[in-house]
Amino acid sequence: MSERARYGGRVAHIELRELDDDDLDAIFEMMRDAEAVEMAAFTASDPDDRAAFDAWIARERASTDVALLVVTERGGFAGTAGVFTVDGDREVTFWIARHAWGRGVATAALRLLIAREPIRPLFARTAVHNARSLAVLEHCGFTEVSRTLSYAPGVGRDVEEALLTLVPALDGA
Ligand SMILES: CC(C)(COP(=O)(O)OP(=O)(O)OC[C@H]1O[C@@H](n2cnc3c(N)ncnc32)[C@H](O)[C@@H]1OP(=O)(O)O)[C@@H](O)C(=O)NCCC(=O)NCCS
């Protein structure tokens, strides 16, 4: 299954695939980009700590509750998208590498993720200041449920976080 993303008037095919060991360096680099960490905020407290990253991603890959996938654009690494369960709620997450920002990759990847994930309801969380992430979620049919202020390790301060849920009528499920 693939989605088409905008790219200078052309389209680029976006796909999700299983993550493998060869992706880990690219994921680590993507998740330590300072601008991206500022946007996401609810990240590792030290994004440069490779040992902590390796331990975290090993736990994610081993967990039966987690499906962490690689997003590809025309076959090349473009980011990650995943679903996981926290306190009984099924949540989506996505992170796109900076070289692929701004041409619809996250929106296309999230559409694919929603289509392959059967569990409903689906939830998502994002820092309220992360306007691009909010736009991606709204494009895919998520609507805001509530906001809370909590400590965001990536930026070392309290950040307002929105909880969103997928509206079934828009989802088509
Ligand atoms: C947020 C992120 C996923 C967006 O990825 P992307 O592939 O660039 O997203 P898309 O191109 O699909 O969509 C971005 C949308 O934000 C809009 N946008 C861009 N800059 C914006 C801004 N400053 N304010 C508001 N909206 C903005 C774009 O116009 C686009 O909407 P459109 O399709 O209506 O034009 C990516 O920047 C990222 O991974 N950031 C770091 C990690 C992160 O924040 N992850 C999400 C955590 S929940």
How would you characterize this protein structure?
- This protein has 173 residues and is an alpha+beta fold.
- It has a domain of 120 residues: Aminopeptidase.
- Helix content is 30%, strand content 39%.
- An eight-stranded mixed beta sheet has the order 1-2-3-4-5-6-8-7, with helices on both faces.
- β1 and β2 form a beta hairpin.
- Bound molecules: coenzyme A.
- The site of coenzyme A has 21 residues, from α2, β5, α4 and α5.
- Coenzyme A binds next to α2, β5, α4 and α5.
Features:
8-stranded mixed β-sheet, alpha+beta, binds coenzyme A, Aminopeptidase, 6 helices, globular, single chain, 173 residues
The distinct ligands, each listed once, are: coenzyme A
- C-alpha Rg (nearest Å): 15 Å
Number of separate helices: 6
Q: Average pLDDT, to the nearest integer?
A: 93
Number of strands: 8
Enumerate the strands of the largest sheet in spatial order, edge to edge or round the barrel: 1-2-3-4-5-6-8-7
In the CATH hierarchy, the third-tier topology of the domain at 3-122 is known as Aminopeptidase
Q: Kindly, what is the distance between the CA atoms of the first and last residues, rounded to a whole number of angstroms?
A: 17 Å
Q: Overall 3D geometry?
A: globular
Structural class estimated from helices and strands: alpha+beta
Largest sheet: 8 strands, mixed
- The CATH superfamily of the domain at 3-122 bears the name Gcn5-related N-acetyltransferase (GNAT)
What's the CATH class of the domain at 3-122, please? Answer: Alpha Beta
Order of helices and strands: EEHHHEEEHEHEEH
State the CATH architecture of the domain at 3-122.
Answer: 3-Layer(aba) Sandwich
